[in-house]
Amino acid sequence: MATVKPQFPGEQAADGTFVRQEDAFRHWVRADGSSAFPAVAGRYHLYVSYACPWAHRTIIVRKLKRLEAAVGMTVVDPVRDERGWAFRDGDGYSTDPINDFHYLSEAYLATDPNYRGRVTVPVLWDKETKRIVSNSDDDIMRMLEMEFEALAGDRIDLYPLAHRAEIDALNTEIYERINNGVYRAGFATSQRAYETAAYRVFETLDLLDAKLAMRRYLFGATPLETDWRLFVTLVRFDPVYFGHFKCNLRRIADYSELYGYLRDLYQYGGISETVNFDHIKRHYYYTHDDINPTRIVPIGPLQYLAAPHGRERIGVGN
Fold this sequence. Notes:
Elements: E1 29-30, E2 37-38, E3 44-48, H1 53-64, E4 72-75, H2 105-111, E5 123-126, E6 131-134, H3 137-147, H4 164-179, H5 181-186, H6 191-211, H7 225-241, H8 256-266, H9 277-287
């Protein structure tokens, strides 16, 4: 049997299962100034990748809350090599205007000189203390949603009090079975680990497809935090996860409700601007050379995400 070189050796269990590392930095910006990081306009900067679904979540919240003037953002090169995420000038990405870092790893080492884990996006950087506040997409989303409210240009509520318990529960299920589930399938190094993860992905997609037949979004007539957490995986599914990660029982385009739901969210105000398929495809197909050793980036699939979705009629009154 051929030896399989895992993409992330430190995150591979003995049975071939991919086990994602924990976030290393989880400090909080607080609106009331009760932490070392008060919510102040212009103090914080996001380092992100359009390719990464975890970073994409924070880009979306920043866009929806209209926090562009309060929190700056720099996009890294989508092609990550052995040196990690890099700051370079290119189409949709740039050099670092804040610290003149060449690699995102410099931000990690500036925060903790002994850091030895994998360097990930997103990163919320504090320009005053010159350190990472957080590299947890979950925490950064919530900070942008809630702690920066006074600085937001749009007071849209993505985490309403009445739905918080349900949101937290569904977030966990979607993360374990879909968001991270596609990675557990794609980075598996044994047949059993792959099949377990892949079948679970589709079991959950089937359930969500049925749920969305009854309501326009996951919790009713308005998209909330969980919808956007799901969206970042759905929008990458047919171009990447279907083929590259072998999640190929069905495409999202084959689902009667999920496909319309995906188009609905893609067409939501400003969201299409946060989706960069060139970055997404080049990152996955070029960077993951253990899965795709030729580094050939496919030309397809053709997608019609701007086509009418017809979801306005669903769940009226929910």
